[in-house]
Design a protein that fits this description.
Rossmann fold; 2 domains; 5-stranded parallel β-sheet; 11 helices; binds iron/sulfur cluster; Rossmann-like_a/b/a_fold; 3'-phosphoadenosine 5'-phosphosulfate sulfotransferase (PAPS reductase)/FAD synthetase
Length: 257
């Protein structure tokens, strides 16, 4: 249980789960603790994410602190171009350099982090706690058994329109063309956002095979997005929501293996 001097820090990722987790943290601790809600601006998210953030500020009754990277212009493509890779076994550099680095500079010792893990993600929380017994985290959605669909419904019941990406059928409000997506997801991005899809193709042309995200299931060879064949289009493909904290949790898990 956090002491009264502890800061409770919620990371708002412009997704429904982090919105509800933040609202619940305010309900649980807003009267007794310093609850901070932070967001990392990313230029590659849909512009409607900013509308959603403003609506949630009204719902929360307080402003959200927006952190913004300046080294890469908060742009994932700039990260990939300058770091010369798109993803490796430790994850994607965009989330590390555009989100985690900002949080590292902002956080204070003793902060308690609010994880937006949903009830479907109990195993991720268990793994994190097992491997980080000295790190204080709160998971209000799991504590209340709330799943992803519950969170969306709660946001709508609060009179807030879900982010445009959800309304198109996507599973989250990550960047348009999130590099954690699979083939079906990228077929959907190719249809809905051809310009952003072409930007990633162009990057892969520049960086070469090391930047390719997908493998041929038969030959096991990597192939570029430009060579993505026809097949199922999956807007609702499950992709982890991109947040500072989930990324920290996953990175810590990989580092300890
Ligand atoms: S949403 Fe995807 S592409 Fe955007 S920063 Fe996170 S991991 Fe990178």
């Amino acid at each position: 249980m956090p002491t009264e001097s502890t800061r409770i820090v919620c990371q708002f990722s412009c997704g429904a789960a982090s919105a509800v987790a933040s609202r619940l943290a305010l309900a649980d601790y807003g009267g007794t603790h310093d609850v901070q809600i932070i967001n990392a601006f990313i230029a590659n998210e849909h512009e409607d994410n900013r509308r959603f953030l403003a609506d949630c500020e009204t719902w929360f009754g307080r402003p959200i602190t927006v952190l913004r990277d300046t080294k890469y212009g908060a742009d994932i493509n700039e990260v990939f171009r300058r770091e010369r890779y798109v993803k490796n076994q430790f994850g994607a550099p965009c989330t590390k350099l555009l989100k985690r680095r900002l949080l590292d500079a902002w956080k204070q010792p003793g902060d308690v982090m609010v994880f937006g893990y949903t009830a479907e993600e109990q195993d991720r929380l268990d793994t994190f706690r097992e491997r980080n017994p000295d790190r204080a985290v709160i998971a209000p959605l799991i504590d209340r058994g709330l799943g992803k669909e519950d969170c969306k419904a709660m946001v709508e019941r609060a009179g807030i329109k879900l982010p445009f990406m959800y309304r198109l059928g996507y599973d989250n409000a990550n960047c348009i063309g999130c590099v954690k997506g699979g083939e079906g997801y990228f077929r959907a991005i190719r249809e809905d956002f051809p310009e952003q899809f072409e930007s990633l193709c162009h990057l892969q042309d520049l960086l070469g095979p090391g930047s390719y995200l997908h493998r041929n299931r038969i030959t096991n060879e990597r192939f570029s997005l430009r060579n993505l064949g026809d097949g199922p289009v999956r807007r609702n493909e499950k992709i982890p929501t991109c947040s500072f904290f989930c990324e920290i949790a996953e990175a810590d898990i990989v580092a300890s293996m």
